[in-house]
Specification:
With 367 residues, the chain is mainly beta. The chain has 4 domains: 80 residues, Beta Barrel (Elongation Factor Tu (Ef-tu), domain 3); 47 residues, no CATH class; 85 residues, no CATH class; 103 residues, Immunoglobulin-like (Sandwich), CATH 2.60.40. Helices cover 7% and strands 43% of the residues. It is built from 3 helices and 31 strands. The strands form 6 sheets. The protein has a 7-stranded antiparallel beta sheet, with no helix packed on it. Strands 13, 14, 15, 16, 17, 18 and 19 form a 7-stranded mixed beta sheet that branches. The longest helix has 17 residues. The chain is rod-shaped. The N and C termini lie far apart (114 Å).
Length: 367
């Protein structure tokens, strides 16, 4: 057998059919498209495809009489080169667009299901051109990070100023940071806030949103420590610019505590409430007359006076007397706090018929 010629086994032909069936043949390893076969009728045929070790397809139908178990010789010819050239040309045509696009670093827009630049083993993940001058990182068929005009959106970016999703990129102003304090939701109250943030509260909403009683509109800083613990600071943005704070432990907030000095004035006096909880009240009672003899002294009736601000417990009361007539007066030993909101005292003088007012200073704590 000449070099390159294959003739092991026998073959059978069917008139009008391009299929040649082998027996004891090994076509896959020894025959290629383009090889030449001379049929028993003397016609020359070329192999179009090797179907298996025992089956070939010719480029045209067999024209002779059907024959079985025929000896054969299959040999390489120039047809191999022609077939190879055809396949190369087909490949060039098939990948021309790739050469002109991806080969030059250019890709199609792509879709969510098939981004323009994707991965063989994860074809709904990659990069796509969403619109003109807009690009998106896609994962799992979802735009995770979408950038256009210097603004980012997407599943990996905060969807609102109050979005508390774990691991998301924060927007400028998100949670009131890096921008203006965020608004409270329509049904949201201060105790509902679960993220560290700044929120603004209009004066008309302070008490309904759970702010300090009597406070003007302000800004609230919430700092969270897990789901059950937090601290909040309320700062007025007008009026006296007062500051309150409170803490949450075990899921429950304690009452608001005023942390700035506050001056309270009433008809009975003035109260200074300090941020450290201390309160000092200056008290002035109504005019009284000392007409009741008490030993060598004269006293007025006992008078009850309201403190200008309530203490958290009975305060210490220190006082004196103001009156005309040139006589010295003083508070009797009856001067005392009746309760956190009231005191009692009487004026005592060395002469009868003197009129004056009871004055006192009360010292204690308001919280």
């Amino acid at each position: 057998m000449a070099a390159g010629i294959y003739s092991t086994g026998t073959v059978s032909y069917s008139n009008g059919s391009p299929v040649v069936t082998g027996t004891g043949t090994a076509f896959v390893a020894n025959v290629k498209a383009g090889y030449q076969l001379q049929g028993p009728n003397g016609g020359v045929y070329f192999v179009q495809a090797v179907n298996s070790d025992t089956s070939l397809t010719l480029t045209r139908n067999y024209e002779g009489a059907s024959q079985a178990a025929q000896a054969f010789e299959i040999a390489p010819t120039g047809g191999v080169s022609l077939a190879l050239a055809d396949r190369v040309n087909a490949l060039i045509s098939e990948y021309a667009d790739i050469a002109e696009e991806a080969g030059e670093g250019k890709f199609g827009n792509g879709t969510l299901a098939a981004p323009g630049l994707s991965f063989l083993l994860d074809q709904d993940t990659g990069i796509r051109r969403r619109a003109s001058n807009a690009i998106a990182l896609v994962a799992g068929g979802i735009d995770q990070f979408d950038v256009s005009g210097g603004v980012a959106i997407g599943a990996a970016v905060m969807s609102s100023m109050a979005d508390v999703g774990t691991g998301k990129l924060m927007l400028n102003g998100g949670h009131g940071l890096g921008g203006q304090a965020r608004d409270l939701g329509a049904s949201e109250v201060l105790a509902d806030i679960s993220e560290t943030c700044f929120v603004k509260v209009p004066t008309v909403d302070v008490e309904t949103k759970g702010g300090p009683v009597g406070a003007l509109g302000g800004v609230v800083l919430t700092q969270t420590f897990g789901s059950a613990n937090a601290a909040q600071t309320y700062r007025e943005i007008s009026g006296a610019f007062r500051v309150w704070d409170r803490a949450k432990s075990g899921g429950v907030f304690v009452p608001w505590i005023l942390r700035t000095n506050t001056l309270i004035t009433t008809p009975t006096g003035t109260a200074l409430r300090m941020g450290n909880g201390l309160q000092i009240c200056s008290v002035v009672g109504a005019t009284v007359t000392t007409s009741t003899a008490s030993g060598s002294m004269f006293t007025s009736p006992t008078q009850t006076i309201n403190f200008p601000a309530v203490f958290s417990a009975n305060p210490i009361v220190i006082g004196n007397g103001e009156y005309g007539g040139g006589l010295n007066g003083h508070l009797s030993s009856g001067a005392r706090a009746l309760n956190p909101s009231q005191m009692s005292a009487r004026l005592m003088t060395t002469g009868t018929g003197s009129t004056g007012k009871i004055t006192a200073v009360a010292l204690g704590f308001w919280e």
